[in-house]
Design goal:
Strand content: 25-35%
Number of helices: 13
Number of domains: 2
Strand order of the largest sheet: 15-14-13-12-21-20-19-18-17-16
Radius of gyration: 24 Å
Structural class: alpha+beta
Helix content: 10-25%
CATH class of the largest domain: Alpha Beta
Number of strands: 21
CATH superfamily of the largest domain: DD-peptidase/beta-lactamase superfamily
Length: 491
């Protein structure tokens, strides 16, 4: 699918990338059960390899999760360069209305630097659904250590940076970054989810195409310079990717214990630093190879994924031109065939006539058709599946359901092709794809949040008038019965 791009393309062999190393990585990831959605590899500033697993595509906006934090830090970098603050400034200085006798000494000592390098002294994250004033709640939360003493990964520290920027400029993160960062990089399509208070989140929420995620890594690799122009403030790329805080803890995997910069992870050589988001959203910056690798995925195997990049992919960067045109062609052909394989199953059943006539009422529950791995991050609190009603057609069906007191509708493809719709989250859009098939008189259907690394596979079993609904979230493991109920004929 053609997309607007300002990055050059080049064959892997011309920049010394062995195509077989990419094959080895793809094969190893598949064997490990790691679900890849998008992969791009840039060498010497040009894209040498790229592929997407259908139904994902080059145009798909995909959640960066905590990769968002690096963009938040960049906004602070711009603000520092514009003289709006200094990294050593105390956070409380910018919120004088929060001054109160009961504030702890730790809250008073907290600086912008501490927030940037995850050394706030807070381990527990505040719940944004339970406060009207996140800054007040954060400053009064429990400090388990003095700011600056220990590494405490806390997404609310990142969100405090977003709120600080808004206090200083009156602009949200996307408003502030548009002219300073997104426009120079040619990032025109993005989505940035908001909190219950209505402001974009500082710790996660940014959705980008794979290529635009890659661009941030290239910008940092190139010391903040893009097409000859200094885009990031001079020196910020080096400062943000430098060792700012020791994050080594007992039992931590080596790749997650190399230190932390300003909202970036330090890495083992040849990778210097990376943007990292939950469930496999990574941009790896490799100055020694003059390369950047961007990955969008769905996996809970964060250690294994990065190990496979190091063991299978990195040995293929040779640093010299190669004569591997045949392998390059084979790699392009393989990338063109990539798919998650979900559209391969087509199976109909005479049970459709029965399911089409009944109304299903579930027992009281707190479950949802939003995947469990997505619910907390998306502030889904008011859940509970109540009723199901199906209508079957020639090539599809529609599920009408009630959840948390809200009536929703989900079209489901039965012909091996996804159907699309919007299942809005409390504070964000949520485009989904869905398809279904029959297996042993059970109706199975998949709901995939196409702009997220989340999906939910469901199985509806009907025995007499008793109904059981089981679900599997690939990020949560085995099948789990989420509710049961009774079926009755629709009036």
């Amino acid at each position: 699918m053609p997309i607007s791009s300002n990055l050059r393309r080049i064959s892997p062999s011309r920049v010394g990338l062995r195509s077989d190393s990419v094959f080895h990585f793809l094969d190893a990831a598949r064997t490990a059960g790691i679900e890849l959605h998008g992969l791009m590899i840039a060498v010497d500033g040009a894209v040498a390899a790229e592929g997407w697993w259908q139904p994902y595509s080059p145009c798909t906006l995909h959640s960066c999760y905590s990769g968002t934090k690096t963009f938040t830090a960049a906004a602070i970098g711009f603000a520092v360069a514009e003289g709006l603050l200094r990294t050593q400034d105390r956070f409380l200085h910018f919120f004088p209305e929060q001054e109160a006798p009961e504030l702890s000494e730790d809250a008073r000592l907290l600086t912008v630097h501490h927030l940037l390098c995850m050394a706030s002294g807070q381990t527990d994250e505040i719940d944004l659904t339970q406060t009207d004033d996140p800054v007040r709640t954060f400053l009064r939360a429990n400090f388990t250590s003095t700011p600056g003493e220990t590494f405490d990964y806390n997404s609310m520290a990142s969100h405090m940076l977003a709120l600080l920027l808004f206090r200083l400029t009156g602009q949200t993160l996307p408003e502030y970054l548009s002219s300073r960062l997104f426009d120079p990089l040619g990032i025109r399509a993005f989505r940035w989810d908001r909190t219950p208070q209505g402001l974009p989140m500082g710790g996660w929420g940014l959705h980008l195409r794979t290529e635009d995620y890659l661009k941030m890594g290239l910008l940092i690799l190139q010391h903040g310079v893009w097409e000859g122009r200094q885009v990031l403030p001079d020196g910020w790329a080096e400062l943000a990717s430098a060792f700012q805080m020791d994050n080594a803890t007992p039992g931590a995997a080596p790749e997650w214990a190399q230190g932390y910069g300003y909202q970036m992870w330090r890495c083992q050589a040849p990778v210097k630093a990376r943007l990292s988001g939950s469930f496999g959203q990574h941009v790896l910056i490799c100055p020694a190879l003059n390369a950047v690798v961007a990955i969008q995925a769905c996996t809970d195997r964060k250690v294994q994924l990065l190990d496979l990049v190091r063991e299978k992919l990195m040995p293929g960067f040779t640093g010299r031109p190669l004569q591997n045109q045949k392998e390059d062609r084979e790699l392009r052909e393989r990338f063109a065939r990539l798919t998650l394989g979900e559209e391969d199953r087509v199976a109909r059943s005479g049970m459709e006539k029965r399911l089409d006539r009944i109304h299903i009422v579930f027992s009281p529950n707190t479950n949802s058709l939003f995947p469990p791995s997505q619910r907390d991050m998306a502030f889904v609190r008011n859940a509970g599946l109540e009723t199901f009603d199906f209508e079957f057609y020639e090539e599809s069906c529609t599920l009408f359901y009630r959840e948390g007191g809200v009536e929703r509708m989900l079209p489901i493809g039965l012909d091996g092709r996804f159907r699309s719709c919007e299942l809005p989250l409390p504070y964000a859009p949520n485009p989904v794809l869905s398809l279904g098939f029959w297996e042993n008189d059970d109706f199975c259907f998949l709901i995939r949040s196409i702009e997220e690394p989340h999906s939910l596979s469901l199985r509806l079993s009907l025995k007499g008038n008793e109904v059981t609904l089981t679900a599997r979230d690939p990020l949560k493991g085995k099948n789990v019965e989420i509710t049961n109920g009774r079926a009755c004929l629709r009036p």
